[in-house]
Write a structure and sequence with these properties.
This protein is mostly beta strands and 402 residues long. The chain is built from four helices and 23 strands. The strands form five sheets. Strands 1, 3, 5, 7, 8, 9, 10, 11, 20 and 21 form a ten-stranded mixed sheet that branches. Strands 12, 14, 15, 16 and 19 form a five-stranded antiparallel sheet that branches. A three-stranded antiparallel sheet has the order 2-6-4, with no helix packed on it.
């Protein structure tokens, strides 16, 4: 019989599968107290315990102890504590023998304990119709024995767009009920940041075209005009009709004063415009733990959406560590924060890891690569850190996710 044991959870007597320490007992066929040897039996596919800190190893009565000699009770009952390792995907069983080599008078407990970890998430949606392929994300973490469990779904006020400065307010819709960790996954429509520009100039024709900065994109929403006013030399004013358009490959704004009634005959008309352009659009944001914002309004594949959620939860569990991870990189090589450049170009060590490459990595294939992609799975290097991650209450709180 196999039992999932969630080693990051606080021990609760009503939930025996919670906690790293398991109170065990078994019984051998004797008529008086005898000395027996309780022997830890790790699965052959387990992580080499020598690669774990002593306190993170499995053991009998204490971490790292592979065997314990103990007297049975008079009826042959023997009680002991089994400490599981902290490495998700490890498996352990226990046998009791009458001699150290474990061959004589062996009693198998018949139970295999699997090391799992559990995290929770609440979903908030701006529209009930907003959907997300959670199965892919849950399946990816399940591969590493991390179980993501939904707690509730809420409908929150709709806005066509949230700028980054608007995100913090959505913390109020989070109704945390679980520990050690519950994420708040918020399905929003779009997340775009604006940059404002002002233009004041004189026009001599009823229709005039002005360009926007060539490195900027048109603001994708209807509230792109902040303020505009045209004034002729007599002091008469009118509101121009503004249209975003492209001419000869250049993005810009057409100013139409043909129905303004302003006088162009004696002098140019002065036109002032304040408008928004797109400073950046984002597929997700985890800057306000435990909120993970996912923009589902911009058309993209299920793989790309899954990448965003799996990536942000990856940050919550401590990815990507700066120590020991040979593919880790930081802001100096692109992106914001700590990421992984597995599969990216060029295949060179990052500045953060002592390399000399100072450019931006492209086309990474790990879920922890900084930019949007179709890849929502952990690379082999990240996988080890994810499985070993400390997801206990105190550790999650220290990361800002508790």
């Amino acid at each position: 019989m196999a039992i999932k044991n969630y080693v990051n959870m606080e021990t609760v007597s009503a939930t025996p599968a919670f906690g790293r320490k398991i109170e065990c007992k078994t019984k051998i066929n004797v008529r008086k107290p005898v000395m027996v040897y309780i022997i830890l039996v790790p699965d052959p596919k387990n992580k080499d315990p020598k690669k774990l800190k002593l306190e993170n190893r499995a053991g009998i009565d204490s971490p790292g102890r592979a065997m314990l000699a103990k007297m049975t009770e008079s009826d042959g009952t023997v009680r002991f504590d089994l400490f599981l390792s902290t490495y998700a995907n490890d498996k352990f069983s226990v046998k009791v023998a009458k001699e150290k080599k474990g061959h004589k008078g062996v009693k198998e407990t018949g139970v295999t304990h699997e090391v799992w970890k559990k995290l929770y998430y609440q979903t908030s949606k701006m529209k009930a119709s907003f959907d997300f392929p959670f199965g892919r994300v849950l399946g990816e973490y399940k591969k590493h024995n991390i179980e993501l469990e939904a707690t509730r779904t809420e409908i929150v006020p709709y806005k066509e767009n949230l700028e980054t400065d608007d995100l913090a307010a959505y913390r109020a819709y989070f109704k945390k009920t679980k520990t050690p960790f519950e994420a708040h996954i918020v399905l929003i429509d779009r997340q775009c940041d604006a940059k404002r520009f002002s233009s004041v100039g004189e026009v001599t024709a009823q229709k005039t075209f002005i360009t926007i900065p060539p490195d900027k994109e048109h603001w994708p929403f209807q509230d792109w005009i902040v303020n505009t006013l045209a004034t002729d030399t007599s002091g008469k004013t009118a509101t121009p009709t503004l249209t975003r358009t492209t001419r000869n490959g250049k993005k810009g704004i057409e100013i139409d004063l043909s129905s303004s009634g302003l006088d162009f005959t004696t002098a140019p008309v002065t036109v002032g415009i304040e408008y928004k352009v797109l400073a950046g659009e984002y597929t997700g944001d985890a800057s306000f733990p435990p909120n993970v914002f996912i923009a589902v309004g911009k058309p993209r594949s299920d793989e790309s959406k899954s990448k965003t959620v799996a990536h942000e939860i990856g940050h919550a569990v401590g990815m990507v560590p700066t120590r020991g991870h040979i593919l880790q990189y930081s802001n100096a090589n692109g992106g914001m924060g700590s990421h992984c450049h597995y599969g990216a170009d060029p295949d060179q060590k990052s500045i953060a890891q002592g390399g000399t490459f100072a450019g931006q990595y492209t086309n990474g294939t790990c879920v922890m690569y900084a930019y949007s992609s179709e890849h929502y799975t952990f690379c082999d290097t990240c996988k080890e850190f994810v499985r070993e991650a400390d997801l206990t209450k105190d550790k999650m709180k220290n990361r800002g996710w508790g």
